[in-house]
Amino acid sequence: MKTIRDALVIAWINGWIAATRGWIWVIGGSVSPVSFLVVLAIYGGAEGLKWGLVGGFIWTIASNGIGLIGDATYYRLGIKYQSMLAAAPVSPAGYALGLALSAFVFALPTLVVYLVVMWWLGLWMLTPASLYALTALWLASAGIGFTLAGLIKHMRYAWALPQILSAVFTVGAPVYYPATRLPSPYLGIVLPTGAAAVMIHDSTGLIHYGPYLTSAAAVALALQSAIGLYFLFKLARWRQP
Amino acid sequence: MIVCQDVGRRYGDFWALRGVTFEAGRGVVLGVLGPNGAGKTTLVRILTTELMPSEGRALVAGFDVVKEPEKVRKVIAAVPQESRPIDFLTPYEFVFSYLLLRGLSLGEARRRTREVLQVFGLWEVRNREVDALSGGMKRRVLVAAVFAADAEVVFLDEPTTGLDVYSRRLVWNAVSELKKRGATVVLTTHYVEEAAALSDVVLVLNKGRVVDFAPPDKLVEKVPGRYVVEVYGADGRVAEGERVLEIGGRRLYYVEKPPEALSLDGAKVVVRPKSLEDYVLLTVGAIEESEEGYEDD
Fold first, then answer.
1. What is the ipTM score, two decimals?
2. Burial letters for A187-222: b for 16+ Cβ neighbours within 10 Å, e otherwise?
């Protein structure tokens, strides 16, 4: 319970208050996925728009976790807020999940717009398979983000790393394109964004991959989110070894 | 309340802290003095469970910092070195959220936040974003949050660095009030007069080792003479002291009696009673960057 409460308090200050006082960050977070969406819509018409919307939705969820690298590093190295919380009964997992949740608060307006447009185009995103994929992706990316943030030694790297990871996670994995374009579609599920995309592409009807690939994606995503949570709870401790 | 037995911390081949042994009881203000790189912040980070010691054992409020970190965290609060409150929050939001994170109920957190902001002179600016506050006010917001936590052991790592004289005194009041409540306060500072005024006992560190551990007046007793004649800009020896210390073009003469007449053309002369600062100058030397200092300190 304390972990959940900690996460909600962090999400309140770092998400809700920050978003309501700085709308520029809400817009900033949606610019990259929207620009992909526009390009896909121009070259691919209605079909391209659908791929752009689903890909943008997945990117936005993944960037919640990856994006917490900047906040976590700033709070640890920039203003030493993490040190203040380390000397208090605050759970590291609650803190990390709170940062990821606050990024979700930032992304919420963008996600709502995506959902409305998808519904208008006849794409129903909120299927059980998609919800599982998005939740697991969120947990996996939060674990990766917080763990990597703990390894950064200089503030300046915290700005560059999320950009590199975003590119790898969204272009390197079949998020905006079908996994069948890869030499083997199973390569697409190596990264959590790709595994989530395979499940969502299939469940929204964008492309049907067949039961083997989607099952493999579900298992891969479960493993990836378990590893992410393991890092979050076990390795991403307050204490420096 | 705090027990350290041979505590050490190594980074590769470099020992940032070694063989640190001392005890400080309940309701004691422990001043930690030393130059940059002395190991002050390394010691604080070990005691606040943020850094693993390489050797030795440390207890805070009876709990082992390595084996029982969760129990230690429940009874401590800290203002880390060079920390700042989150800039887009207001002082009210910062203190309130900190208390909620410590596990206080909504009502209790509200009550304490209001009370502490009044005590620290921040009530008028409670709804202004921290970004718009002066440096002194920002620092006071941090100290206020920790003060409101009502912890058994409070760590203040250089809490008054860069503060104006008014803000410094508000922090000093907080330290005195914490002591009155029975809390143990660990205060690291560069300001020797601050350590002298507030501390019951002073731990002097240099290059990661304990130089001395005693009440401030006992340390001052170790300084020769009773007065200090400090002269700047005069050639040659101008007084006979029990000991003479040279710092660049400045000479400090440690004497039993202040000289009756000292007329030196163009030289600046100050005669004052000896203090803890003289002890630090004579035993530790210059408060400057240690060549081997670790980034923590």
1. 0.87
2. ebbebbbbbbbbbbbbbbebeebeeebbebbbebbe
